[in-house]
Amino acid sequence: MEWELILSLVFFAFCAGTIDAAVGGGGLIQIPALMGALPQTAPATIFGTNKLASICGTASAAFSFARRVKLKWPLLLVIAIFAFVSSFAGAACVSMIPTHILRPFVLIMLIVIAVYTLMKKQFGQVHVDQRITPKLLMFAAMGSLAIGFYDGIFGPGTGSFFIFFFIRFLQVDFLHASALSKIGNFMTNLAALSFFVPTGHVLFTLGLMMAVANIAGSLLGVRLALKYGSGFIRILFLILVSILICRLGYQIIVAV
Prior knowledge:
Layout: H1 3-23, H2 27-37, H3 43-68, H4 73-92, H5 99-119, H6 134-153, H7 158-170, H8 174-196, H9 204-255
Helix pairs in contact: 1-2, 1-3, 1-9, 2-3, 3-8, 3-9, 4-6, 4-8, 5-9, 6-7, 6-8, 7-8
């Protein structure tokens, strides 16, 4: 590859890491960039390389959040285990459910999430300190199972779904939901890589260079999230969900 292309991918990886650390959705930046730079590369290799870069940034963000935001370890463990198992299962079933069937359903869900978040001004602005109860852990397990499976089988909007679920059902604010979502995203990425690496669908040299930039971006994203708080993350969240809605809507129209 020419150095101009490599540097452009490194730049996009940095931007993706910044956005992903705060509200998720780094794949919206990284995957199109990889596809544009490597038009002859198999989609599985594109996704595998993207996951390698993303998992490093997500791990960095998760660690940074864990140091600065108070999180309950039993809750993190439940989210991590169930997200990994279901994402692995989703990846194994990826050929069984065509993506054109999933797109309309995901589009509707994203529109509902955007309208709900926009209408409820206080949504995600108040954090309730969680008491670890069987009911809370059951909700966390169910949400992680569903969203993890979705990420393994399709993917777009996973971070947004995690954040919305944690706010709605665990009663945390956007800042804590972003921190929790990093744990879920890290485990779903790890599950996906457990498929892509053994089958040779990862460009390690390029992926590792992008990973360094992704980590740098994630450190900036976490700092911005912690500095400006839940109100700032809410705005980014609505922007990201709106972009996802436009992207999926366009793909559905083109497919028709």
